[in-house]
User: Fold these one by one.
Assistant:
Number 1:
Amino acid sequence: MIKELQEKVLAGEALEREKAVALSKVADKEALYQAAGEIRDRKCGRHFDTCSIVNARSGRCSENCHWCAQSAVFKTHVEEYELIDEQTCVDLALKNAEYGVSKFSFVTSGRALSDRHIDTICEYARRIHARAPIHLCASMGLLKKEQLQLLKEAGIPRYHCNLETSPRYFSRLCSTHSTADKIETIRAAQSIGMEVCSGGIIGMGETMEDRIDLALTLRELGIKSIPINILNPIPGTPLEKAAPLADDEILTTIALFRFINPDAYLRFAGGRLLIQHLERRAIETGINAAIVGDMLTTLGSKVLEDMQKIKDLGFYNE
């Protein structure tokens, strides 16, 4: 079955939900992982996309996402500040450009960034573009089309808005906004010609079918950059005692995402330190992108070490 479905995917056929569920249950996991890696090589080649993020606004978020340290609803003792200063932000972007990182993303806490803060970020973007050839992205919550247009005009052509999990399961993890709200933002960004980055978090109590439904929704939306986060349980959040996922569950999830989204960039994101022992196998299973450097409120990875790993595994980054 694995080979048959692989050939169909390589021929351009979309994997159906029932077939994806069947794949998740195959006994020969190693064959599944190998097939997924081969799909990646055939559909995407050996290019490895890198991005770095800056926590441009921290804490004080009104939303009650159960996984998030930034929520004001929970007592996580995260650092709080309104907006990072221009010099710090510009210097960080320039350093990442010097290291050869492809993209640099402004990430802000809160349901949506204010118009005043968007104007400030737009000025930061113009300053960065004047000094370094690095692609810029933004993740600023549930923005409206007019706000997204300002970002695009300032030289930020890509917007990030994670769906996080399946529409069915999302309502159990957050009640202050919905999957439909997120999709509205994604479609608004797409309607003005912005690229969109969207993925999710695994390990929040969801089922494998929830992960499959997330991957299918992302395919339906035409998403080509998909971060796969591994939950890093944050003390003070409702998920602080979530049990870690087994290695095979993580690798199977990556393989299924690759079968469902064969030509997308599947991106290592949050929780990488939890699976350092799996990094090589995860890349062999279909990963071809990563957030490098530190994450938002938890440690990530060292940029130069990541760039060397990419080369050592036979990938190139431009």
Number 2:
Amino acid sequence: MKVVVIGTRGIPDIQGGVETHCAGLYPCLADMGVDVTLIRRKNYADALASARGLDSWQGVKLIDVPAPKRKSLEAIVHTFRAVLRARSLKPDILHIHAIGPAIMAPLARLLGMRVVMTNHGPDYDRSKWGGMARRVLRLGERFGSMAANRIIAISPLIASIVSRKYGKECVVIPNGVARPEIPACSDAILASFVLTPRKYILALGRFVPEKGFDRLIDAYASLRASGRIDRAIRLVIAGDADHEDDYSRALRRKAAGVKGVVLTGFISGDTLKALTANAALFAMPSTHEGLPIALLEAMSYGIDVATSDIPSCLLPELLPDDHYPVGSDVALAHLLAAKIDRRATPRAYDMSRYSWPAIARATLDVYRSVAPGS
């Protein structure tokens, strides 16, 4: 079976939830004998030494297609070009990720391709988008839902949105997480950031408003100022901005003004594994998520967690006191202090339903139901 994948910035080591999803899923499908080609945005691949110039990675073929560097045009122009490139490859399945790129699903169907679309969540709820972008994303959700041969949703909540709005059935297949690994060089990695094991709170993600990192810094600063946490406890925020803007610049200024805050920039590989494995607490103060892989990865390492109570973070593997009311800075600070005092890391979570091989098998079943001759 031949599958072409579009809608992602690319793999490997490229920042983003969809990108991490694809990096976990497609090598497993390649191991199962699926011929997978993933079309990347060339500017993202060129920006990373680990991704630059690759024509394959872990059995997945890679093709780079240029995209404009403007946030408002990047995804839609790249997806249009990727659909045309995909058609020349004559795939059995075109797999489109995310509702923005799904706006091109009708074009793919007109070109004779069978389409699977994965809905990673209602991106139009993200505060980084303006009115026009939100309308385009809503249109992408509609076009993808109506044109795709099958729809995958990464959570029951997303499936219910699609069912309610478009009367379409989704196959629910969650995000996954790899087996935790602790690099042999962990001590050196932590030392490079002047960090001590179990003496820091970790947050991870892109520098966009819905991640809530500005509020996390404020909560941490208030705890330090009041003496409610040990001043040796640091706050580490790992990530960066895809496109530098007013929010990301203000976030950097805020972080620079609070002692104990560490901005690592975008990290991956052994650096990400080492920082996750040795954290005292993982914090996710988001106002919007699909099914957050960063949270799943922290749980796979047995790290205690503190998250907002948005529906996508209310995982059955977590407890009620792992959450605080979204938007309440006072409650966030209180939960961070309580978690640090409790020193609950390590914890044991049941991660069985987030196995990438199991997710790959479920995805392959979807492909088989759509492929020619099925």
Number 3:
Amino acid sequence: MPDVSLMTIHRDLTWLQEQGLAIKIRGGARSLQGGGSEPVFAAREALGRGAKLIIAEKAVSLLSGTGSIFLDAGTTGLALARQMPDMPASVVTSGPNIALELCRNTSMTVTLSGGVLHTSNLYLTGSAAVEALGKLNIGIAFLVPAGFSACAGFSCGRENEAAVKRLVTSKARIKVILMDTTKLDRVFAHTFAAAGDIDYVVTEKKPEELPEALREELRGAKII
């Protein structure tokens, strides 16, 4: 038996879960690093499921009638796809599982960005994705960061993902960040947007429940 207290083990497992490196399960933890796309994505989807549902339900209120919509890949983007009503809109997404989810909506036109599939998070990136998105006009974009901080803005862990997000941010008329509060004060290697680039930030908490410093940093954006 290692000379480590149970409290220390639980604290370390909590830290690994917060970093997206593992998920706590009964009797221990499961790594999120590799081992096939479905288990990794499914485990990430289970993290903060309630918060993602609240965010998705709030974000739906920003949709109105027809239009061109970009929906970012990832578990929060998938949660929003599940809440979207069937409406005559053109939706482009970087997540193949999101495109499949939207197929239930017969009034929508759904387009995949194309590119190289990253199996750990079901995200399409690369030159083909950038080229395809560069040809589109985007009315409203829903973007999902891995972290946000005052010094680094909205960031993610891979440059090829950041390139897609940067392009979409530059092209979209309305930019919406979908972000649960576990991502606050987290910095990843690649910044794709600053606070001033964003029109809305959707989180699971009410604006008055967020730290004052965060609200001040995001003062140009509407927090819902």
